[in-house]
Amino acid sequence: MVIMRDKIFSCIMAMRDKINKTLFIKRSKSPIILVQIYVNDIIFGTTNDCLCEEFVTVMQGEFEMSMMGELSFFLGLQVKRLKDDIFLSQTKYCREILKKFEMENCKEASTPMSTRCYMDVDLARTVVDQTKFIGLIGSLFYLTTNRPDIMFAVCLCARFQSNPKESHFKVGKRILKYLKGTTSVGLWYPSHSPIHLVC
């Protein structure tokens, strides 16, 4: 992995991101190319077709690799490219979580958390399987990459991973019930939209 990162860095002479050391950015005045590496997979995107072809030529000259075409699925993330928009979702991953925690046939909830929900250490309640609870929280955290609607509820549940009780697991299940009705929700990026975050 380190050798591969270094070779890519020297091949395309790109800037390595300061936080994510597997993300490379190359700017040539206006055109830009972004290269993301995950183990032995590479995703890249560019604003210029010539940069794309140049990158492919350089990489295939250095490594034995095959092109899979336009990105549509990667690490549980589904990418749907429309004419001027991009839609990111985790529908398949969402269904896998529901199946893993035996909630695929559960009733749907309209919100990830009840408005009257209060969570505390809950010393009086029954202790639940910590491994299962941590697994649930970890699975939900991965989903928050494009589901900011569940972020607050997941983070609140995560506070109780060291000693989870029945009441905490119940809140986690409520998040799953919400996901049951919203599996196809994701992030939509229209090409003409401003970069400013609106909440």
How would you describe this protein?
It is built from six helices and eight strands, in the order αββββαβββααααβ. The model has no long low-confidence stretch (mean pLDDT 83). The strands form two sheets. It has a four-stranded antiparallel sheet, with helices on one face. Strands 5-6-7-8 form a four-stranded antiparallel sheet. A hairpin with a 6-residue loop joins strand 1 and strand 2 (23-27). The chain has helices spanning 2-12, 49-62, 91-100, 130-143, 151-158, 166-181, and strands spanning 15-16, 23-27, 32-38, 41-46, 73-74, 77-81, 85-89, 186-190. 14% of the residues are buried. Helix 4 (130-143) runs antiparallel to helix 5. The chain starts with a helix and ends in a 9-residue tail after the last strand. With 199 residues, it is of the alpha+beta class. The protein has two domains: 2-69, TATA-Binding Protein (2-Layer Sandwich); 93-181, no CATH class.
Instruction: Tell me, rounded to a whole number, the average pLDDT.
Output: 83
- What radius of gyration results from the CA coordinates? 21 Å
Largest sheet: 4 strands, antiparallel
The fraction of residues in strands falls at 15-25%
As for the number of domains, it is 2
**Secondary structure: number of strands:** 8
- Our measurement of the CA-to-CA distance between the termini, rounded to an integer number of angstroms, reads 38 Å
